[in-house]
Design brief:
alpha/beta, 7-stranded mixed sheet, about 280 residues, globular
């Protein structure tokens, strides 16, 4: 069951029995964590289609975000995208794939790979989830610029985009935002609210997909910020960008393209096109 780099579709199919069993087993502690640890509340579930297909997008604020999203979806289930480098980690990669992760490689051809994998995932589950910031910004309540991959897929396939905003509220206990555990200072976890917004319809004009995808991404980001602001999300608790689980080895100085070279542009372009994944 280990993932092999470049696999055509790295997610497990819904009919795969270990996939079904693992998800149900893991959802038990996931529900407990959401109830007791984050005190998670969900609003707007009526905006989720009971059937049919849609692309879901969320701001990425915590390592536990995929579990929070799975909890917020209720009875519906979704595939969610993840970095291929995470899927290649022994045991961890298999574990998160059993929970519904779909690895997406970075590099040339990643957009074509993403579209092919998205079609299969949507046919199997109906819902496909992205973190369009491309990185996890811990406890951040000001969504960073969105990458276009999720919105390009939605425009290409004529699907609505449903924004799922994670709103965080600072927690205090006896006037403090932290506790002491074995002499160490441990911050109290924030209180979580997931706001499921109204679907953003796909554009009627499918000729200028890049522009349409950009407009959808800007609209989704604006709606997420409005959801955070209107519900009093705590903006002063951000803990910065989360380091990736797998660090890419640095290239020798002689092999690195200069910032303005064509090679540097070729390296950056695919990442900007396909980056919309969880770690």
């Amino acid at each position: 069951m280990a993932y092999r780099k470049g696999s055509a579709f790295g997610a497990f199919p819904p009919t795969f029995l270990p996939f079904q069993v693992m998800f149900q087993l893991v959802m038990v502690p996931v529900r407990l964590v959401n109830w007791l640890f984050f005190r998670t509340r969900v609003t707007g579930r009526e905006n989720l289609p009971s059937r049919g297909r849609a692309v879901l997008v969320s701001n990425h604020t915590m390592l536990m975000d995929p579990a929070v999203v799975a909890y917020a979806l209720g009875r519906r289930r979704a595939y969610f995208t993840m970095l291929e480098e995470t899927a290649l980690i022994p045991y961890l990669g298999t574990f998160v794939r059993l929970l519904g992760a779909m690895p997406i490689p970075e590099g040339p051809g990643s957009m074509l790979f993403l579209e092919s994998a998205a079609r299969r995932a949507l046919s199997a589950r109906g819902l496909l989830h992205f973190f369009p910031e491309g990185e996890c910004y811990r406890w951040n309540q000001e969504p960073q610029a969105f990458r276009p991959g999720a919105f390009f897929i939605a425009c290409r396939l004529g699907l609505p985009v449903i924004p799922m905003t994670t709103v965080l509220h600072e927690r205090r206990w006896r006037g403090r935002t932290f506790i002491r555990v074995f002499g160490r200072t441990v911050p109290l976890p924030p209180v979580v609210m997931v706001v499921i917004g109204a679907p953003i319809p796909p554009p009627s004009d499918t000729h200028a997909l890049r522009g349409a995808a950009l407009r959808m991404s800007l609209q989704a980001r604006r709606l997420m910020q409005q959801a955070i602001d209107s519900r009093g999300g705590s903006k002063g608790i951000s803990r910065g960008k989360m380091p990736r689980l797998v660090k890419k080895p640095a290239e020798p100085p002689g092999l690195q393209p200069s910032p303005g070279s064509a090679g540097a542009q070729r390296v950056r372009a695919p990442a900007a096109a396909s980056g919309a994944v969880s770690r």
